[in-house]
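Tokens as discussed.
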């Protein structure tokens, strides 16, 4: 640290430097964190003044605190950028095009913390069926995004090898327990035959989906399900078979869309159902815009959202 009682003293120490000698004292404080410079702090005063030993000690200590805070902020920015890049790389760039079925996915990051969570969606063309997937890994940040990527890859591998829906979820559950004991995730997996409209659905601790029928009636599908993934390797996940008629629309979403302070999840799901019923049979993009409209407009979104 360097302390100059006046700009005249600074000019004497560094002759030839353009200096406004009409202003006061200056304190130049290097910001050092973990033995490396991360910046500098310059304190200016409007008049000449001396710096007592106590003041110099306090200002030097203050510079140390600023350096640590700046270092943490830089690390946070780096980790946040890494997590966002990881998640963007893992979410599908495009969804498969299959005759008779229109699909659309949306993702909104949270506005708190790392801004990146473990929500994901996927649509997988298995050759005979179309697998619709929505999932949510506990937590936020790089770890959640990394776990999400592993689970998404596992689900895709099981699906592309024509595993039954129950086997897909059971296998993913065992994988998560092996990968990270103590971590858990929810998931809903629907295997749809695009020709017959027959769908087989499995739910693991995930919010119930919403179905709009061709006549406009909209309902919450009360799918029996198992516990979240990552808790019990012997957990069972029942399969529900249903038929989606031409013109029907199925909405899968994560809890970030339906959670609000002071309300329970069932109220949130009912809110989504009512919104879908109200807007009627419009293009999927418009439906997604209206369903997520309130969340997109919110300045405080504690959780990320996948639809």
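Sequence:
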């Amino acid at each position: 640290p360097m302390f100059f009682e006046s700009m005249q003293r600074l000019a004497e120490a560094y002759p030839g430097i353009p200096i406004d000698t009409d202003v006061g004292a200056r304190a130049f404080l290097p910001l050092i964190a973990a033995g490396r410079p991360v910046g500098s702090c310059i304190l200016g005063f409007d008049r000449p003044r001396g710096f007592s030993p106590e003041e110099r000690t306090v200002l030097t200590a203050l510079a140390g605190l600023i350096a640590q805070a700046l270092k943490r902020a830089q690390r946070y920015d780096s980790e946040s950028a890494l997590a966002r890049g990881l998640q963007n790389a893992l979410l599908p760039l495009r969804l498969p095009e299959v005759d008779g079925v229109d699909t659309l996915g949306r993702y909104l990051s949270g506005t708190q913390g790392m801004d990146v969570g473990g929500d994901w969606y996927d649509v997988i063309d298995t050759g005979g069926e179309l697998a619709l997937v929505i999932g949510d890994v506990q937590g936020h940040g790089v770890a959640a995004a990394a776990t999400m990527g592993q689970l998404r890859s596992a689900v895709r591998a099981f699906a592309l090898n024509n595993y039954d829906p129950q086997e897909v979820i059971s296998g993913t559950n065992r994988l998560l327990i092996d990968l990270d004991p103590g971590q858990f995730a929810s998931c809903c997996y629907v295997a749809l035959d695009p020709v017959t409209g027959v769908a087989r659905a499995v739910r693991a601790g995930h919010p119930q989906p919403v179905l709009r029928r061709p006549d406009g009636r909209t309902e919450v599908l009360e799918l029996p399900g198992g516990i979240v993934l990552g808790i019990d390797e012997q957990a069972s996940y029942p399969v529900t078979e249903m038929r989606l008629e031409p013109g029907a629309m199925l909405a899968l979403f994560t809890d970030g869309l339906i959670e609000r302070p002071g309300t329970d999840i069932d109220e949130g799901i009912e809110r989504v159902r009512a919104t879908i019923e109200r807007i009627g049979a419009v293009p999927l993009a418009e439906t997604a815009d209206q369903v997520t409209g309130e969340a997109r407009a919110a300045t405080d979104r504690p959780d990320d959202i996948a639809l």
